[in-house]
Amino acid sequence: MLHRIMSILAIAVFCAIATLIFWLVATGRGETQLPRGVDTFAIKGIDISAHNGYVDFNAVKRAGYSFAMIKATEGATHKDKAFLQNALAARRAGLRVGAYHFFRFDTPGYMQAINLLNSVRGMPLDMPVAIDVEEWTNPTDRSTESIVAEIEAMASKLKSEGWTVILYTNKDGYDRFIHRRLERYPLWLCSFNTPPDGKYHHTIWQFSHRGIIDGVDRLTDLNVFTGDSATWDSLFVAPVAQKHDETDCLPSMVSSPFCLQPVWMQPETLRLGPHPDETNNRKYLRTIRFSRDRAFSDTSYRDP
After folding, report:
1. CA 261: distance to chain centroid?
2. I need a surface site. Which of 19, 90, 155, 289 has the fewest CB within 10 A?
3. DSSP secondary structure string, 191-259?
């Protein structure tokens, strides 16, 4: 009987410890200390998407955060449903705002650029647009050379439209995709355990995926800007936002000082041509038509 009781107690203690560990990891409270060097940077920011749920950006601002990188798009067609709301609310709260795009290895970079441009045109952004390059959730059968070529195609298209581009990746992604290939672009580096060393020359450092801050109910990615205040004031200059009449705004947004209607919020039709056959470099054929007097079309792209 005593042996049975001891066995039950041992199992109960094991389950309690396992539950505690899971709770600490799931809530981020197991992250008891920040990586060395994070506290030396004064300018802090967050990056979020619709997965973070409702965000009180005024509370985020009061908590000492200065910028927000907000997910806008992914691949050639996906648009983050919270991008517009998050971007406008963050600006109203006084945060500097940038947009990021999750890059898909199996989709032409040019088409991914079109998707992002469709979402950010007319938005009052004052930080770069970021291309998020991660192996996680991406196909594993694409060569490094082909992926780099598509990243370059996307970045080039964004630059041609006047946007400053920054590349996001982790240390492994840097070694595979960025080093000696795309180093001319500013770098937003993810590194959780140790501070990045001098070889990366990063502009933004993402140091946590499990931050807990006022204004965000769910775990949040945390970042610091690694330059000085003069660089901060001069580096992040996005294109001048297009001016629109109040008639271009959604009814609920007319009173907003950032009353801009992104192109993707307008009535539109989008027709994409067949998926490219990489063996014979078939052209992408597409027509993108927008309502009113805004038109954007491109049929010149050929898969490299």
Report:
1. 21
2. 19
3. -SSS---TTS--SEEEEEEEE--TTBSS-EEEEEE-S-HHHHHHH--PPPPPP--GGGS-GGGTTSTT-
Strand pairing class (44-48; 67-74): parallel
How much of the chain is helix, strand and coil, in % rounded to 5? 35, 20, 45
Q: What is the pLDDT of residues 11-69, one digit of tens each?
A: 665 655 655 545 444 444 445 467 888 888 999 999 999 999 999 999 999 999 999 99
Helix 144-160 crosses helix 109-120 at what angle (to 10 degrees)?
30
Contact 183, 193 (CB under 8 A): no
| Amino acid identity, position 206 | Q
Q: What is the pLDDT of residues 176-188, one digit of tens each?
A: 999 999 999 999 9
What lies within 8 Å, CB to CB, of 86 at 6+ separation is 48, 55, 57, 68, 70
